[in-house]
Please model this.
Amino acid sequence: MQWKKITTYTKDYCPYCHKAKALLKDLGVPFTDIDVTHDEETYRAVKMRSGLNTVPQIFAGDTCLGGFSDIDALHKTGKLLPALQQKA
Model:
C-alpha cells in the first residue's frame, strides 16, 4: 500500500497526541512525528499553515486532517485510510 507523507505535530504532555499516534501505529500507517513541545517557531509555523491552534495536527501530504478527534471520526466512518493513501 502506498501512503502519502503523513506528519504529526505533537507535544509530549498531550494525551490526544498520544492517542493520535497510537491510532496511526495500530493501523500500520508510517508517519513522521515532529514534537513541538519546546519548538515555538515550528509550532507557530504549523498553526499558520493549518489554521488550528491545538495539537495534535495531522497532515497527509499538504492537507491538514485536523487533530485526534478528526482522524478518529474519519476512522470510524471508514474514510481515514483512503485519505492517507496515495492515489494510483
The mean pLDDT is 96. The longest strand covers residues 6-10.
